[in-house]
């Protein structure tokens, strides 16, 4: 039997799903994953629970049963949160079989087997109907499909399919909305990750300078994206050339499109310099009012530095 495993494409940086056979060491796959990081992110988990509890309450206030679809359930944590918050039933989808098997055991051990069904499929293969994986569409959509690019982990196609086939129109969604932010900076250190500069080395004949060929120096290179922890970057390593600007937002409670799109914004300069690097991060709002927010913002753009969490923004 073959099982899908996520792999980062070294050329594009995107996550792709590849098939591995039954002899593959799936324990290593789980060990290299980010499951533990997410499970130990207390702030994120608290806000997910607050958002889920609020969504369940809104559905119940309308006199409806709270039927939850959890895409990418992993350990089943968010599904168990949903049932704890009062959901009537939860359909938890996990494509990675070793993790789906683990989720079955975790859900059973915590006493939720009667209200949570683990479905070991890709969400686009889930069926609806009397003989399907789900008897009817869900009215609450819960996901944790995001990577450091927000939607680079194939999130939009999964959302698009779910809205078309698996959830009710204008369903409750947790998270409800996400916004991507960007800031232009000048930084020799970060610029050097994509450029060749003269290198000074100590030799037996003293200091020598290795100078790259002029052709390489003039080569503009290709735009690159780097995953870094911006909170570890010293403020002396860059100069902000613009304010932080929201680039685009996605409302996950409505139909989304996975088609390629272009978002254009004009930055107002704060200082003169070379716009060498774009710093980028995102926020997710767990509720329609935006009162429950989980942010990836670095310390200089955080609304409350005292609440700063260890999370990874991006640089490009």
From TrEMBL:
GO function terms (MF aspect): histone methyltransferase activity; protein-arginine N-methyltransferase activity
Keyword entries, A-Z: Acetylation, Methyltransferase, S-adenosyl-L-methionine, Transferase
CDD domains named in the record: AdoMet_MTases
GO biological process, one term: methylation
Keyword tRNA-binding: no
Keyword Plastid applies: no
Family annotation (PANTHER family): PROTEIN ARGININE N-METHYLTRANSFERASE, PROTEIN ARGININE N-METHYLTRANSFERASE 7
Descriptive protein name: Protein arginine N-methyltransferase 7
Biological source species: Neovison vison (American mink)
């Amino acid at each position: 039997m073959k099982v899908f495993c996520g792999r980062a494409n070294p050329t594009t940086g995107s996550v792709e799903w590849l098939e591995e056979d039954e002899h593959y060491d799936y324990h290593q796959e789980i060990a290299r994953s980010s499951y533990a990081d997410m499970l130990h992110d207390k702030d994120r988990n608290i806000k997910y629970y607050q958002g889920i509890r609020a969504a369940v309450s809104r559905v119940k206030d309308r006199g409806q049963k709270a039927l939850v679809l959890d895409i990418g359930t992993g350990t089943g944590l968010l599904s168990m949160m949903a049932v704890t918050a009062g959901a009537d039933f939860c359909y938890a989808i996990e494509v990675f079989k070793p993790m789906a098997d683990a989720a079955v055991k975790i859900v059973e051990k915590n006493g939720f087997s009667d209200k949570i069904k683990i479905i070991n499929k890709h969400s686009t293969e889930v069926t609806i109907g009397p003989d399907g994986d789900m008897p009817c569409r869900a009215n609450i959509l819960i996901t944790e499909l995001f990577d450091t690019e927000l939607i680079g982990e194939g999130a939009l196609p999964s959302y698009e399919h779910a809205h078309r086939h698996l959830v009710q129109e204008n369903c409750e969604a947790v998270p409800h909305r996400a916004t991507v932010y960007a800031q232009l900076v000048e930084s020799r250190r970060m610029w050097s990750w994509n450029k060749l500069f003269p290198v000074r080395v100590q030799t037996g004949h003293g200091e020598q300078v290795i100078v790259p060929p002029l052709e390489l120096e003039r080569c503009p290179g290709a735009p690159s994206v780097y995953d870094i922890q911006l909170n570890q970057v010293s403020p002396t390593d860059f100069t902000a050339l613009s304010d932080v600007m929201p680039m685009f937002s996605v409302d996950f409670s409505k139909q989304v499109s996975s088609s390629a799109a272009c978002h254009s914004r004009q930055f107002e300069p704060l200082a003169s310099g070379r716009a060498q690097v774009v710093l980028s991060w995102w926020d997710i709002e767990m509720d329609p009012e935006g009162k429950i927010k989980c942010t990836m913002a670095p310390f200089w753009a955080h609304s409350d530095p005292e609440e700063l969490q260890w999370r990874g923004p991006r640089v490009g």
